[in-house]
Amino acid sequence: MQNNLNKSAASALFNWHYKKKELTQCVDNISKSALAFFEAHFDFSVPYIDTVHESSHDQTVKFLFKLADDHKVETVLIPFHNKYSICLSSQVGCAMNCAFCFTGTQGFTRNLSSSEIVGQFIQAWRWLAEHRPGDERILNIVFMGQGEPLHNFDAVKKACEIFLSQHGTSIGTQKITISTAGYIPGLERWSQDIPGVNLALSLHSPVEKKRNELIPINKKYPLDAVLAFIDQIPLQKKQFVTYEYILIKDFNDSIDDAKQLGALLVGKSAYINLIPFNAFPGSVYQQPDLATIDQFKTVLDTFKIPTLIRTAKGDDVLAACGQLNSKVSQARL
Ligand code: SF4
User: Domains in the chain: how many in total?
Assistant: First the structure.
């Protein structure tokens, strides 16, 4: 058996699994010794599709994946303009315990490996090819599923390298977004190791006391320090940071909240996503009415910061932002 892989065998392997998205043993132009090498050194298993929930409102699809150790994670395909974004999980559960997020209530179990992260993409693509043939166009990747991606940096970085590679899925840097609650050690690594990949910060309140309630790690890594860190990262041309803001009725949806948010972000390469809160079983918060949401945006418009109100997709199958929880999905089976 050969001791390492020559270039052409490695290239054939990438092509087989990441471009053709085959799950079986690679048979394209592979020598017997290379095949023996694969068998001895690689594991080609991917997460198993346990359950699929399709939204009846839109084209959203939520997958419950079963991992080799029987733990489960969720992944969501979100439709936009006849294409899909995929929302990937990076951990089983999450240690951040954010108050507005269903995943936060399930606690942290373990990190996902890079193959479990890339495997979610491959399986979702294969499901589309089988069930919605011709529609298997997943053009954006967002790490906004279960887990804090920067808390599992090494595996997320490796997965991004595969997504970005010309030999891998060949997705452009501007099409991948990593979302963080503001975990500064991970931000430091992101800025050094994968700077071209987009960043989204879960901001949710410019007021320290409220942000402490929504995102407990704000007590350790306060918003001021997170924003100061992000501000000194040189962004690439046309790159901006997305600031996510979940609008919660009578909590962070006032005109004063909007003015403070605008004042905090004015002048930055910023883009604001306003996300009306999505309820989940046991949640204590509520969604504001449409007039309040519009008013909030109108205030932000005066600061000339590009702002989008994100409409919920897949909320009927608990697939919208903040609604993922693989323990509850598992229990419902
Ligand atoms: S919002 Fe993100 S970081 Fe916070 S608990 Fe949910 S998955 Fe974790």
Answer: 2
